[in-house]
Amino acid sequence: MLDAEFNGRLGDFGMARFHEHGGNAATTAAVGTVGYIAPELVTMGASTATDVYAFGVFMLEVACGRRSVEAQFQVEKKHMIKWVCECWKKDALLDATDPRLGDEFIAEEVEMVMKLGLLCSNIVPESRPTMEHVVLYLNKNLPMPDFSPYTLGIGTFAPFMADAASLLALSASWSWSGPPMSSSSCQPTDQPWSETKNSLHVVAEPEKPKT
Question: Is 144 helix (H, G, I), strand (E, B) or coil?
């Protein structure tokens, strides 16, 4: 976003609703839109990895032509990340593409975007690529890492409050030229996000006074 002097500012549209312009932006709240929020945001805080997660969701939305969570869809298609991964497991990744594209796309490029979207939205923060790597992958200046729909953390749609610490420990044993990643099977969760709200506002409990 640009300010009045056209200086670039990194911000969050959800946060803008809770703070006056020029006011103190310090908060203990986690604010964001359901579907874009990295599951570790509450327990570990915001980071470049949480931004990469949101960008991965964005890439999948562009390729699939839908929102991350569609409450009115069939059960198997409600959560986009899980659905795209299931299509990949069936060797039918292109079935998840936006039907409005028709035949006006290059299959290899769309598949690459979808796989990269899944890689960026990995539930394990340490296994997400940096944005530098993402740009290199998109420009085909660096080959994509070797991973599958069964790789740990891929295609997992986790609740916002999920603790990824155990997954981080499991992912430490396998590495590649980019960020580390595990080759173990992913463990998707059956717990859905709330389907009645478009945004989530979680506020940390205040500390109890010391006696």
Answer: coil
pTM, 2 dp:
0.65
- Cβ atoms of residues 154 and 148 within 8 Å: yes
What one-letter code names the amino acid at 132? E
59-112: per-residue pLDDT in tens? Answer: 999 999 999 989 899 999 999 999 999 999 999 999 999 999 998 899 999 999
Q: Which residue has the tokens 């660096």?
A: 142
Q: Domains in the chain, ordered, with CATH?
A: 47-193 (1.10.510.10)
Q: Which two tokens stand for residue 21?
A: 């312009």
Q: Which amino acid is at 72?
A: Q
First to last CA, the chain: 45
Burial status of residue 123 (CB atoms within 10 A of its CB: 0-12, 13-18, 19 or more): buried
Q: The tokens 């709200």 sit on which residue? A: 197
